[in-house]
Amino acid sequence: MIQPRSSHPTRGTGTLPGGGQLPFLATKILPARFGGLVARPRLLAILSGLPAKRLGVIKAPAGFGKSSLAATWVETLEQNGHAVAWLTIDTDDDEATRFLFYVSQALHQACPDVGASAIGLILENNLIDPTAILSSLINDLAEIEDDVYLFLEDYHWVNAPRIHQTVAYFLKHAPSHCHVVLTTRTEPPLPLATLRAQNQLIEIDAEALRFDTQETKAFLDGTKPGVLEIPDVQLLQRKTEGWPAALRIISSMPSQSGTGLREYVHNLSGSQRPIAAYLTEMLDGLPVELVDFMLRTAVLDRLSGPLCEAVTGLSASRAILASLAQRQMLLTPLDNDGVWFRYHTLLAEYLRQRLEADRGIEVPQLHGRAALWYASHELWTEAVQHAIAAGASDRAIGWINNCAMALIKRGDLFTLLEWQRQFPDELMRGQCEVRLAIAWGLALALRFDDALKLATDIESDIAATPLPDANLLCECQAIRSVAIALKDDSESPLPLAQDCVNRSSDPWTANVASNVVRFSHMKTGNLKQFHATPWIPYSVEEDRRNVFASVYRHCLNGLAEERQIRLAAADEHYREGFRIAEQDVGPNSVAAALPASLIARIKYEQGLLDEAEAWVIDRIPLINSGTMLDCVWSTYFVISRVAAARLNFERARTLLERAENLGIARDWGRLSAGVIAEQARLYLNDGRLDEAAACVDRLERLARKYPAPRPSAWSEIGWYHRLTRAHLLGQQARPDEANSILQQLQHEAEAMEHRQFLISIAIRQSAVQLGAGKAAEAVSRFRRVLAACSAAGLYQTVLDEGPVVSELLRVAREGGHVKADMIPYVDRLASGLQRARQDRAAPSSSARILSALSPRETDILTLIADGLSNKEIARSLDIGPETVKSHLKSVFTKLGVEKRAQAVSRAQTLGIVTTQ
């Protein structure tokens, strides 16, 4: 058995050949001790696998908590009765004999039966072959039965190849109960690949050592308890990227407390003291040429060897980057191939501030070189950004001209609009094509007034030229028609757009204008003209370049089919639009968000609530910022009704309020009307007639504000008002008034060929007639409704009417009015209505699901809602990432979802987690 650790380490006082003595500093073999550490059981859990491994490597830049983690693990091992040897390495130890002398002393300190012979050999002759010393140590260790741990702190100071060979030899030949742990800033030149293959290596890197949000909060609670709220903690974690040193520095500032600390966190940057002082000390230890390289490449958001070479002029840039990565100088890889990197956010800010202060005259030149490199690779976005930073406005505008319309046609609206913000109007005045692209971007990004003003200004400038370009004037007219149409005015843009369709020679302009024409005809109910509107077919290559126009066309075609309750045909159009967007610009783009929002409505109507929600829940920001009114309304209709179906009416109302605010901000009266009608429906279903009446009054005011003397998009505002009023009158036992309104609505909807709205009218008519005691008339009408809905695949819209549909179905069945071919559909409705009744009568859905979730699953779900990644959840709960995945799989199954965002949304709709 291992004997107790000696209280007095062996002293190196032996005489060496030549009469000298080998110096020995006892504190180097005493483990570091730290106070006030944040418990990091997730990392200790990783290290707990060390008894089955030969080597553990804790590798990260300075200030990432390597030493504190190692020291904590040492304490744990010692408390469990294990022998632990510790050696803190410094630059003086970069010689094989001296290194082995200290290793022997450390092992002898931990195990009195180990190391005495090795120490004696060294003291007798410091020129002895290190292999002989190692053999002595290994033989001593072989006599020990229990596990022995050797910690080598700051191994990055070792450069001598002979020492690396010695450690590799030790790892290969030491007995299996001997384990080595290295803390280092660099990748040690040891046979790590072989050890990985043999499953004999544990690695903890900077990514693992970063504090997640929970650890950041725990750390601050220990140093500045109660000062920062969760959002402030999250901001601090993002700005520091979980770098423990930065967190320690900030928390140690006595002047920062209360609101002062919150303000400091919000303004935190790498150029602020004392972060800057720490970074200065860190860089002072580097070679001057390396620091110079870092300063000059600080203008770059990402770094690669060729790019850095172009910026610095140094042909050795690849090697320098590799050296920085090797030194763990807060350089984060961006790919798995080691090609692209970025500096830590705080380091980048510090370097840029220092570059500006020390050699600010070089900054424009550096940006200019970066711009040229990016331009040579046709990476126009980065090229323009650096040209702007270089002050090369003419060059930037020239490059914008190369890519501006390409960005618009792909739906990348916001990049171009950000560039536009950086140039004064007078500089852009002579750039007609760039200004036209910006006007397109403003219109499609729903900045209607800005787009109209710019288009008018461009028209004036073109008209003032000796030979006005008719094509450019036509393009301006098309832009104005788009802005007006997206403002939800379906009448005014029609003549403008139709004229462009007739005379434009540019396929993009003609096709976008044709989409406006389609929109106008659809909203007037003129489907014959809708389908007769021409479209210039794109080639496959042109289709990739004109994504936005093609996607909009498929969405409009789908909406027209949906009005006719041809859901399958509508779905085909939406999915083709999504396929084009996904293939050419990706699934998380504005272009993809357009059809995704409409597919969600189809899924909802089919009764597939989870699938419906899944189509939009991750895309809501994109839908809000860059899609037409019908897409926004489809999204909020779906997610609010899903919430109501799950009996979370608070979330449903919250979502509707958000949609109404958007409608007010954009002057979208039709969106506001749809929202208010939904709010009234919730009140009426709950028997709250006074609140519903207030909604009817609001709808009446909207209908006056947005008059529709002729059929148009705004006609729907009046329809929402009258349909809601009829619903209210029916509940107030005023059936004649309700029927009069519904009959008028029916005539108007028929004239505009809006069969989808006719279904809602017919259901309401049936309900009013049933309530008035006219059961035969009610059932006769409802039977026709069921036939139409069954043929179209409509389900949820009927189900949402609730108890009145149950009664209509009962009367229809009892009277033998259900045909044989309708029985499966009616049975499905009856089953759905029964489930809804049971849900309302039974404990809430959230209570049932909450009871099905284990406490651990509930914790994980809450942390997902807080925005934590799987790794961060694992760290927070002291479990492995694979365990998190296993729990998530169970959570997804119990919630009936497939993605994290869906799980969060479902939990919010059920009230399991809070809606923010």
Structure in words:
With 916 residues, the protein is mainly alpha-helical. It is built from 50 helices and seven strands. The strands form two sheets. It has a five-stranded parallel β-sheet with strand order 2-3-4-1-5. A two-stranded antiparallel ribbon has the order 6-7. A hairpin with a 7-residue loop joins strand 6 and strand 7. The longest helix has 19 residues, at 823-841. The protein is globular.
Provide key terms for this protein:
7 strands; two-stranded antiparallel ribbon; globular; five-stranded parallel sheet; 916 residues
Q: Could you tell me the strand content as a percent range?
A: under 5%
Output the radius of gyration.
36 Å
Tally the helices. Answer: 50
Q: What's the N-to-C terminus distance?
A: 59 Å
The overall pLDDT, averaged over residues, is: 87
Question: Quick recap of the structure?
Answer:
This protein is mainly alpha-helical. It has 50 helices and seven strands.
Give the topology.
Layout: H1 41-47, E1 55-59, H2 66-79, E2 83-88, H3 96-110, H4 116-124, H5 130-142, E3 148-153, H6 161-173, E4 178-184, H7 192-197, E5 201-204, H8 206-209, H9 213-223, H10 230-240, H11 244-251, H12 259-267, H13 275-284, H14 288-296, H15 305-312, H16 317-326, E6 331-333, E7 341-343, H17 345-359, H18 363-376, H19 380-389, H20 393-410, H21 413-421, H22 425-428, H23 432-444, H24 448-463, H25 470-486, H26 493-503, H27 507-524, H28 527-532, H29 540-545, H30 547-563, H31 567-584, H32 590-605, H33 609-617, H34 620-626, H35 629-645, H36 649-666, H37 669-685, H38 689-705, H39 715-731, H40 735-751, H41 755-771, H42 775-792, H43 796-799, H44 803-814, H45 823-841, H46 845-852, H47 855-865, H48 870-877, H49 881-895, H50 900-909
Parallel strand pairs: 1-4, 1-5, 2-3, 3-4
Antiparallel strand pairs: 6-7
